[in-house]
Design goal:
The protein has a seven-stranded mixed sheet, sandwiched between helices. With 192 residues, it is α/β, with parallel strands linked by helices. It is globular, with a radius of gyration of 16 Å. Helix 4 (125-136) packs parallel to helix 5 (153-162). 27% of the residues lie in helices and 29% in strands.
């Protein structure tokens, strides 16, 4: 399949539909992934160590890597790494480092920016994702999540507020949001 992000075209290996694989969430390019890739097209990334959580087809990671960013992708799906390698080669993009594992077990180090798209589709995912982010966010790290309007987003926002994150959002059609979380300083003024 082909997708245009800004003025750049990307060719992606994807499944024809959700019925091709036992996991109906993997192998499909979701609208939230496209919205996050668009956001990463001009997001400030110089000098930042970046992690894409639950990368799936990893279009946002490909956009970042094409820009020269230091990005690592992670997913628990057994085919994610193969799809990522194929898609990077198909677009003439250097290999994107990949780490496999679930949010409750993988340990990847600290990152300055953590991104993810359409991550909150199961009831237990808000708590798992919030804990994962807490373990992997460097001091002052930003988090950018693209969500298509899933029910679990409200719970995730509560968990991020409890972890002293503020949030700014913008919308994408039809009900989606790009949420930019930033840590508050201990004096309550927010961090830069």
């Amino acid at each position: 399949m082909a997708v245009r992000i800004g003025a750049e075209d990307y060719r992606l290996r994807a499944l024809r539909d959700r019925l091709q694989a036992p996991d109906p969430m993997f192998g499909v390019l979701w609208p939230a992934g496209i919205a996050l890739a668009e956001e990463m097209r001009s997001f400030p990334v110089d000098g930042k160590r970046i992690l894409e959580a639950g990368c799936g087809l990893a279009l946002p990671s490909l956009v970042l890597k094409r820009r020269g960013a230091d990005v690592t992708a992670t997913d628990h799906h057994p085919e994610a790494e193969e799809f990522l390698r194929f898609n990077a080669r198909a677009n003439g993009i250097p290999a994107v480092p990949f780490k496999s594992g679930s949010w409750n077990e993988v340990q990847l180090g600290a990152f300055d920016l953590i991104i993810g798209a359409d991550l909150l589709y199961e009831p237990d995912q808000p708590a798992l994702l919030a804990s994962f982010l807490e373990r992997h966010a460097a001091p002052g790290a930003e988090i950018v999540i693209a969500d298509p309007g899933r029910r679990q987003l409200r719970e995730f926002n509560k968990l991020m507020i409890a972890r002293r994150y503020g949030c700014a959002e913008k919308r994408f059609p039809p009900r989606g949001r790009i949420l930019r979380y930033f840590p508050h300083s201990t004096d309550g003024r927010g961090s830069s």
